Amino acid sequence: MRWLEWAARGTTAAFPTREGGVSTPPFDSLDLGLSVGDDPAAVLENRRRFWGALGQSPARVVVPGQVHGTELAWVSDAEAGRGAGDRESVLHDRDGLLTLTPGLGLVVSYADCVPVVLVASGPQGPALATVHAGWRGMLAGVVGKAAAELATRGRLEAAVIGPSIGPCCFSVDEALRGRFAARFPGSAEAGTVDLWACARQELEAAGLPPEAVTATGLCTSCAPRFFSHRRDRGATGRHLAVAWLQTS
Q1: N or C end: fewer C-beta atoms under 10 angstroms in the chain?
Q2: The pTM is what?
């Protein structure tokens, strides 16, 4: 099992590859998504392995039910465990989670969409946000909305843009390219859009300096070690990125 790990300002985030699980093709092998048609028993075993490798308990994570929107939710111990082992208890209709609670894992599901993790510091201690931004959510401003909400609890300190579809592979029609060009100047070339640049623009507009924003620069569509909805024409698994505030 492998993952990319990012740490900043008392926050840790992990972005897994698809290696190290038990799911069979086309979900091979570390499919962490319960809504893509994979065997639920395999997905739960994959989640057990992933949480264990990170030293996380499923009772201490929160999984949102994402809808490509802009709705956010502050969560705490009261929401711990929601969505960790089933689809029914997810925090429905949310594409971003925020917390002040140390040790509580905030989850983002993706297989091309952009996972973003942000951290702020304030009088109540560090604050954390995780965001799911597909192209619809990006255009609607979910990254900027999460950054603005997190900034109500302190000063924005750092952010990371996780593995997701890159400008090399995110081809769009002219109408959609024009919408991105108007909303995020410089992000759209002939027939393609750079979602990483869009996320960076939103984060910098919220007050983060360029050096405080880390981009992994890894395209899920290019790299076979990642699931990609577009590359695999929908028949693929899902990653769950998880981030948490350190307890010490």
Answers
A1: C
A2: 0.96
Starting at the edge strand found earlier in the chain, the sheet holding 3-8 runs 3-8, 11-16, 239-245, 105-110, 61-62
Burial class (CB in 10 A: 0-12, 13-18, 19+), 110: buried
The answer to whether 22 touches 47, Cβ cutoff 8 Å, is no
CA 162 to chain centre: 7
Query: 103's torsion region: left (phi>0), alpha (psi -120 to 50) or beta?
Result: left
CATH architecture group of domain 3-245: 4-Layer Sandwich (3.60)
Q: How would you write the pLDDT of the chain (248 residues) with one tens digit per residue? A: 999 999 999 999 999 999 999 999 999 999 999 999 999 999 999 999 999 999 999 999 999 999 999 999 999 999 999 999 999 999 999 999 999 999 999 999 999 999 999 999 999 899 999 999 999 999 999 999 999 999 999 999 999 999 999 999 999 999 999 999 999 999 999 899 999 999 999 999 999 999 999 999 999 999 999 999 999 999 999 999 999 999 86
What phi, psi does 40 have (nearest 5°)?
-55, -35
